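Hello K.,

You asked for the raw outputs rather than the summary table, so here they are, unedited. I folded two proteins back to back in the same session to keep the settings identical. This is the first:
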Amino acid sequence: MFKFLKLSVPASILVMAPAIASAAENLAQDDFVGISFWLISMALVASTAFFFLETQRVSAKWKTSLTVSGLVTLVAAVHYFYMRDVWIATGETPTVYRYIDWLITVPLLMVEFYIILRAIGAVSAGIFWRLMIGTMVMLIAGYMGEAGYINAWAGFIVGMAGWAYILYEVFAGEAGKLAADKAPASVQSAFSTMRWIVSIGWAIYPLGYFFGYLTGSADVEMLNIIYNFADVLNKIAFGVIIWNVATSESKA
């Protein structure tokens, strides 16, 4: 398995190289949004290689969690290549690509809560489905508001309701209670940090939505810089937290 990852991860990066290089010729030195797309796409590629290779250092029960973290950053990296090219070529917000990315990666992030809880014992399927429902409500409402299918305020309010539903589940719902009652200290610490990222880190997205669509004049540069910053925290940092608890528990 290690040999496969050792060969396949660098090979995947080489396959992506033409897409990585294609936008470099057109990247202006004062295009700070484009620069942020570039930096984050490279950070996501590096994180993907790191998470996949680190699966060899953790015990069996943590391998799935770390693999999912690598899948999150891999999917995001591919979409960031496309989003970066759209921005540099047109100067427009790559809304479709961004939401396709989120429709894949955000449910995977929610799955991480479920996988971590399963690593410490039996977990009901209800936790999984409640997290998925909250996620889809949040994302679909946000996309419809940004794409103009519904009123921007309506999309914002419904999306916030989906987010609140997720927060309730991980703090006060079955998932939160299970983590508090049965998890060892290291898992409790990781679970707590993860849910605070979902609270504070995800709060950055409504901020971007507000400045981009609800202030009366669309500020596409502010919108994309805020969204890009949020993705660094909510995808890479989220995975690093899981990596830390996985390696700590495996050594113990």
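The second followed immediately with the same parameters:
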Amino acid sequence: MKRYLTGGAAVLALAAGFGAPAFAQDAETRIAELERRIADLEARPANTAGGPNLSFGLGETQIEIYGFARFETFYDFDFAQGDLTRPTRIGELGIDGEVAGFDTDGEFETSVRVSRLGFRSTTPTQIGEVGTQLEFDLFSGSDTTTSPQLRLRHANVTIGDQWLFGQFWTNFMPLVHYPTTADFNGPVGITFARVPQIRYTWNSGNGLVLSGSIEEAAGGSSDPVLTAAAFYGTDKWSVRAAGLVGRVDSGGEEFDTNGITLSGSISPWDGGTFSATYVTGEAIGNLLIGGGAQIVDGQTNDATGFTLEYRQALSDTLSVGIAYGREDYDLAFFPDVLPGDFTSTIDVQELETIHVNAFWNPTDRLTIAGEYIHGERTTSDGSTFDADRIGASITFSF
């Protein structure tokens, strides 16, 4: 892995030196795309836009239309992962020419499925400002289709700065410290889920934000999960801690699920930011990017993940970064990732990814991005498979 980190650093240095085709949004733009920034995001998680881009009034209600169109292209050198990084496909070989695998001598892929459309509204009422949010992307259906279908991302109602009812990012997820990548998934080792929920948020006004939620379990469960989180931030650094408890159903039995997430960032000099996230828990694999099994052979599968990132703004329009992620599972699992009903003969014990990218904004609304991604998959017997891919995208926001 040191060899790949060194190689990634070299690519990062080249991107910094030449500002060539690996471009992407700067950190601030990326976090805005992931639903607002730091304390403001935590305090008002559904409708906290700054100045609306496309807005109009209907009586006392203000309506904002937002989103972006994005074209992406990828090239896989070893294993075809589709239109976003899927490390569980790494090492999936065809069998005797009868079962299709993902191994390839090189595969080119394009996608528009990340493109997004959203609507927000705010209305003053006697109980405070009531907001709504509806947001969609094109991730329904196959990743190879040229006619993708709408998929609901967010649908919620907010009352004031405190209450949120509906589908939004899980409160367990460290959204404000999510690594910046051009790839839609980003590195493994971090939680990523949107779920229906009831959330209450309290903002001290001095950097401290507390929140708690009752959420629909992201995996199979007849019971809700409970979460709580605390965030504190300044202009230079921020930290966040979150916890989750609940139950999961599997094979007619119920099992406990629980976990903690710790994350933080620091900006020691102008334009530079270090960030890290850590998550560990019991039966939480379904919340992680790698999508690990919650239950294996009637036992809860403990999982641990972490990410590390460094980003540097080189100018007002160009930034570069490198992010590393890892997931470890106590019990190896066998994902069904091949076409058809075939179950993989290659198990998953560990996953690792490295993303090296650059982001260029020639205008306020146009972003050109490029990225090199290396992924590794380790099985329970210690066998390791790896893959490399490169990608580029162009995005126009409105």
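Confidence is low (pLDDT under 50) at residues 1-52, 338-344.

Happy to rerun anything if the numbers look odd on your end.

Regards,
P.
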